Structure formats: structure tokens, C-alpha cells
Amino acid sequence: MELTVDTRSLPPFEVLEIGGEIDVYTAPRLREAVVEAIEAGKLRLIIDVQRVDFLDSTGLGVLVGALKRVRADDGTLDIVCTHERLLKIFQITGLDKVFGLHDSVDAAVASHA
Fold first, then answer.
1. How is the beta sheet containing 100-102 ordered, strand by strand?
2. Domains identified in the chain and CATH numbers
């Protein structure tokens, strides 16, 4: 399945809306989108995975790498996710304690108010 990445600005946040599957084949596209945003000075990222059907360890690695990059410059990275299947992956790996997981983009924004 194809990976889609749509970005929109919600100052001071950059929202990346991801769709499809994040796996070993598509993770480089996600990494590219994240790096592009960071290099453009967008250090407050919200990654919306509501339209993601599948997430593997490669995809998790991209998300962790992105978090490290933004935190190195005092940025933030939050994830919008309500799918039980994906939330379980975050819980099993302990990444639910590392990422800010939210029910909506608005909730992610509000968590920084």
C-alpha cells in the first residue's frame, strides 16, 4: 500500500497527516517528510496517524529518530492516534511513555497551552 503524507501549518505547529502503511518500504518517505519539516525550522511537530493501517518497527524507528531530532533543538513531537491496534504497539514498546499520544490534533495543541 502507498504512504501518503500531507502537511499543514497550524502555527506554531506543523501537522503531518500520514495515511497508508508505514513499513520498511515506505518509512523513508516519512523520514524525508519529517527531515524536510525540521530543516525548514518546524520544530513543533504533530504526526497524525489516524489514517495509518499498519506500523512496523522501521516506522517506529523513524518516529523515535524524529523525536530525538526535534528535542535536540528544544522542539516537540506529538502523535495523534486512536486506533487500538496502533496504540497497543506504542504500549508494548513503552513508547506510550515517550511520545505525547492524543485523540486529536486539537488535543495535541492544547497539551502545550
1. 3-10, 13-22, 44-55, 76-80, 100-102
2. 3-107 (3.30.750.24)
Our measurement of the distance from residue 29's CA atom to the centroid of its chain's CA atoms, rounded to an integer in Å, reads: 13
Angle CA(102)–CA(103)–CA(104) in degrees, nearest 5?
A: 95
Closest-CA residue to 43 (of 72, 64, 79)? 72
Which cell numbers hold the place of 48?
497524525
Find, among 68, 62, 57, the residue nearest to 93 by Cα.
Answer: 57
Residue 101: per-residue pLDDT: 98
CA distances from 46 to 13, 16, 113 (A): 7, 6, 14
CB atoms within 10 A of CB 90: 20
Q: What is the pTM of this model?
A: 0.95
